Amino acid sequence: MKKTSILLLAAMLMNLTACGDSTPSADDTSPAVTESEAEAAAEPELLPERSLGGKSFRFATYESNLPFFYTAEMNGDIVNDAVYTSVSRTMDKYDFEYETIIYGTSNGDVESYVNTTILAGDDECDMVSGHDGVMWQLSMDNNFLNVRGNEYHYFDKPWWMTYANEELMVNGRQYVFSSYMSYKSLSAARCLYMNTALAEDYNIAVPYDSVYNGTWTLDQYLGMVKDFYQDANGNGARDREDIYGWAAYTNLYCLQATYINCYKENAEGIVTLDFDREKLIDLTSKIGETLLSSPGGYISGTAPDAAMFLNNKSLFYYDTLHQMTTAEFREGSVEYTLLPLPKYDETQSDYITGTVDPHCGIPITCTDPDTAHFIVEALSIAGYDIVRPAYFDQALSAKFSQNEDMPKMLQIIGDGLTLDMAYLCSSYAGTSLGRFVMNTVAGGSTDKLASTIESLLRKEQRKIDIINEFFAQE
């Protein structure tokens, strides 16, 4: 559901640096930004001077999500140390403590945590973060406070990730949110990795020019991959040892959001089921047939698995920006570049990047919501000023970029970030409109797409009715 055109996050992505003499070394321990840069970045000062008297800010999340928000110590890693600096400076400035509560190892564990704490009326945390879809559903069970209208929040500022928060707001109210308290949403941006060594070996041009002139389209991409196949081990069977155009996984998270949004909010604040069916059928058919039937398409499994790409067995790989910073990419020898997801066709004005975020909420059981709102804003400003440039400008655009075009590709990818409410309302089990493309690929067949869509409409309308009923409440 898009209420506005895709937000161009130009301010977020300014001053990108290309790979060169200024690239930080792998063991660089210099601060992500200087004191003066951090102090000047968020001018004018929006929050009042305030001492919180050592109060604890209690944050509940799952284990692997915590480093995107908080770290207890510096370790020499650019991004980790920026997170530490961001939080510690904010704590010192406003005199509060950051207390972490780890409720589990999976993002879906948030449901059990909320049901045993908030529903029980326990004031155990000041903010909770978890699986995006689960948090969205939990918000409509009256578990979280409305963050709109609070005096401390400036949703027009770039640390509030406008693309996400407008999608999460319905009828002027919003109960879960995404901000630069965490850099997770940017790191989860979907993109294409292209093996430049394979491309050179097979005399395939990297389509930078098409990207720059706006003609990088889905048909061009699929045309590059569908017939790209080599029986590398000569056994006459298609397996993981062969070379493919696109070795993909079935759970193509957020890919559909790049092209189709099935829910829309009208001027009266009512969500409706409104989408181009023929476009969804065409998109699903093309991607499904490429991965399921063409020589160059290969399904490597259900979950993201970069091994074939890193072993030079796949020309393209679809995943998140976060992959660039993982040990397997940092320590691997693959030569690659990044590309934005292609446009549906040349009539599409901008490149669009689907993403997700473990959304946050302030529980209704929080006994000091004023302080919680204040700290959320303060940490969001600091994260934008300190962590964002360390992650995007220093780590991705400089340290890990392999050529001068990669920072430019990163900027295009970052400019197009978007969320999709229909995706948030989809489920792991069964077919849904929000995950129609990935459900089709996982199902192994592109037959009867039109009738399958038709069979889903009543169920999707029930989801929308629940949304409208909740957000219509006073």
Can you offer a commentary on this structure?
This protein is of the alpha/beta class and 474 residues long. The chain folds into two domains: 26-187 and 356-400, 3-Layer(aba) Sandwich (D-Maltodextrin-Binding Protein, domain 2), CATH 3.40.190.10; 190-354 and 418-471, Periplasmic binding protein-like II (D-Maltodextrin-Binding Protein, domain 2, 3-Layer(aba) Sandwich). It contains 17 helices and 14 strands. The strands form four sheets. Strands 4, 5, 6, 9, 10 and 11 form a six-stranded mixed sheet that branches. A four-stranded mixed sheet has the order 2-1-3-13, with helices on both faces. Helix 13 packs antiparallel against helix 14 (406-415). It starts with 34 loop residues before the first helix and ends with a helix.
- The class by helix and strand makeup works out as alpha/beta
Instruction: Quickly count the domains.
Output: 2
- State the fourth-level CATH superfamily of the largest domain: Periplasmic binding protein-like II
* DSSP strand content: 5-15%
Low-confidence stretches: 2-43
Query: What is the CA-based Rg, rounded?
Result: 22 Å
Helix content: 25-40%
Q: What's the story with the biggest beta sheet?
A: 6 strands, mixed
Provide keyphrases for this structure.
474 residues; alpha/beta; D-Maltodextrin-Binding Protein, domain 2; 2 domains; 6-stranded mixed beta sheet; 4-stranded mixed beta sheet; 17 helices; globular; disordered N terminus
Q: What is the compact description of this entry?
A:
This protein is an alpha/beta fold and about 475 residues long. The chain contains 17 helices and 14 strands.
